[in-house]
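Researcher: I'd like a structural prediction for the single chain below. Treat it as a standalone chain; there are no partners to consider.
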Amino acid sequence: MLTPAILLYDIVLFVHVLAVVLAFGVVFTYPLLDAHMRKTSPGDLVALHRMQVFLTRHLITPMMVVVLAAGLYLALDRWKLGDGWISATFAILIVLFGLVGAVFTPSEKRLAQLAARDAQAGGARSAEYEREAKKLAMFGALAGLLIIVAIFLMTVKPGA
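Model: Treating it as a single chain, here is the predicted structure.
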């Protein structure tokens, strides 16, 4: 029986898919974690937001870089960067990088600060905290939708 060769392309594809799972899988748990913490352990919201800051810095952003690098290799090896499904997914990734820097990281840090302040003041969440949490949830939903669209484009490859 002949064993098929494993090509570099196959390894990079594996790395690319793994990086997508590591970068974006965790963010789909954030609404559930937030709802659970608000209901059962409101005092732990500080820890939740600090964990988000940590994961964004040490897991999500580095894995997004791997997604980009591996994606570029895959696109240049077998496809064309001008293909619509590739261009769209790269555009989505660039938007996600922008959201991480402009919205997610600052909001997560701010929410950790506000949750700590509110806990010291008696535990009730302030209107300022709720506004920031609502903003983060709105942009989180947008990012989730963009991730789903990108996964659809990468798996279906419309027009390929």
